[in-house]
Amino acid sequence: MIKNTIEDILSKYVGGKIDIANEQKSISMQRRKVFSSIITDSFYVLDIVQKQFIYIKPDDLFLCGHSVKEAMELGYDFFSRVIHPEDLPLWKIFLENLPQKMQSLQENRTVPEAFFCLFRLLRKYSFLKEPVELYTYHRLIPIYEDLTLIYLIDIISYTNCKKIGCYLRDSQYSCYQIFNHKTQRWKIRAVPSLSKSETRVLSLSQIGQSSFSIGNTLGVSESTIQSHMASIKRKFETSNSRETLEWISYLNIQLFVQNDDRNDRSISKVVINRDIGQIQQALNEGKSIRSIARRKNISECTIRYWIKKGIVKR
Fold this sequence. Notes:
Shape: elongated
CATH topology of the largest domain: Beta-Lactamase
């Protein structure tokens, strides 16, 4: 049974059991203050039944230059003031479909890991004629009262990811679902699988290393690293490394950085040294770089890089 209550959510954030069972059922001012103090990002609480805002953190990211008073008075209609018109139908139909989706998950005894959406907000500035598009990430938390879905907490932050859509992730089964607002159906998609080399490259990229630095760490050429990154972007359908890293964080894909562990680092060195030894032997036998690369499943650029650095001799 899926049952997120206000108490459950507060407990997750503050790391302990919160007992507010004696409070009134509606979200009280005390709850709002607690949420506002522990959630540093922009957020609001929406009553999806009444289509009214219960609370809006006075943060300009979601308000986009408008006032809290204006948003509270407009309620559900405020979305049309701040959401890009091309993305607004997706968001509205998703909200209408959400109770039905949650009911379906309950009936199937499925606990959703996380709903999240990516869409554009429009920020108006007095000195500009046209509003500025802001790509935003929305982490959604459904809230229940008396086993009925009543509220939705939307925690908002800026994003470099431009994969507009509404999603339900399930990293346990290495998949996620994407909502098609035209058919009002959810489609399951598998999380792309990565090779060991791609995982290693992406892990090092995740901690801020450049292609050149990653190449030095792994003992391969920068062009080889760039080739791996190009393959990763194709698999995840992203346009750049930053977007890729944000997208995998939204899908909660865990990357294991082998170089952070001494045992794994020593194993990696053994493998590289073994490859270098075998490549050197093949070069001594007069084998071509191309034939060695094919046999060892290593790019020609990497072998040429090792030759240039004096790691192997031709």
